[in-house]
Design goal:
Layout lengths: L2 H16 L4 H14 L8 H4 L5 H16 L11 H20 L5 H20 L3 H24 L5 E2 L2 E2 L11 H21 L2 H21 L2 H16 L6 H18 L2 H7 L7
Antiparallel strand pairs: 1-2
Helix pairs in contact: 1-2, 1-4, 2-4, 2-7, 4-6, 5-6, 7-8, 7-9, 8-9, 8-10, 9-11
């Protein structure tokens, strides 16, 4: 077993056991496994053959720990209005599939049900500014990890000049899925940049650079459009006095883009067309 694999096992074990007493530790373990996914990593080859379902294991510990500590959690209500709407939507999908035979992929339903459990736990555990800050930094670090891994993958992970997955878990198995997730992680890096002192700003910028580089490697047009819309929205809704803070970021992003973007990326973005 590699050193990285041993570190993962130790971290995973600590997070799983600690989740029984501190549910947030289980969230950390679940998110780390989701992004690193040792079963598909070179450093986790020995773990893949162990037969242990790491995601399921930490989820069980997290679920039990949440139930055990439920009376002590600081959430305000059992289910919020939006959480109820989401659960109603899932129930409606199941009912319509059963009654009408509507062809809804069971894999999608299964994934949404699994995500529902984690989201409900997340919204009932991460309920303080401190825990939210810890969770945001966790996502920033995961973006840095995925971005770093994306730079190291061999040419076999590319298809027609695009990075077609190959990093992280099975949810990032194609270029568009990976790019979409990286765009989501970029928002955490942006938030932490504005909330942090210079050390935190530096970490956020480095993570953002690796995230943007991964999006460039995927050549995803949807991610490109999402970044454009997000950038405009950030400028429109930036708090008063925040423009002075964001200008250096815009300058750094412009310089970085000129280095990262190549002709292949520009040619693909040039295929974006508006159709009525």
């Amino acid at each position: 077993m590699s050193i990285t694999g041993a570190v993962f096992i130790i971290t995973f074990s600590i997070c799983s056991i600690a989740a029984l007493f501190i549910p947030f530790a289980g969230i950390v373990g679940y998110v780390l496994h989701y992004h690193t996914y040792p079963e598909n990593s070179w450093w986790g080859r020995g773990l893949a053959s162990s037969g242990v379902r790491f995601g399921l294991t930490v989820s069980i510990f997290l679920f039990l720990g949440t139930l055990r500590n439920l009376p002590h959690l600081q959430y305000r209500q059992r289910l919020t209005f939006h959480e109820r709407l989401y659960l109603y939507y899932l129930a409606w999908m199941l009912v319509t599939r059963g009654l009408t035979g509507l062809q809804i992929e069971l894999d999608y339903l299964d994934k949404m049900l699994k995500i529902s459990v984690f989201i409900l736990i997340l919204t009932h555990v991460v309920v303080t500014p401190t825990l939210y800050s810890h969770f945001s930094w966790l996502m920033v670090c995961c973006g840095l990890y995925l971005g770093y891994e994306a730079r190291l993958v061999p040419a076999s992970y590319y298809y027609e000049g695009r990075l077609n997955g190959g990093v992280g878990g099975p949810d990032f198995s194609d270029s568009n899925a990976l790019a979409a997730h990286m765009v989501a992680l970029l928002s955490f890096a942006g938030v932490q940049y504005f909330r942090s002192r210079w050390k935190g700003k530096l970490i956020s910028l480095v993570s953002a650079a690796f995230i943007l580089n991964t999006d460039v490697l995927t050549r995803s047009r949807a991610a490109f459009l999402a970044l454009l819309v997000g950038g405009v929205a950030a400028l429109v809704w930036i708090p008063r006095g925040g423009l002075r803070t964001i200008l250096p970021v815009i300058l750094a992003a412009t310089i970085g883009a000129s280095v990262l973007i190549d002709k292949t990326f520009l040619d693909r973005m040039g295929t974006i067309k508006y159709e009525e």
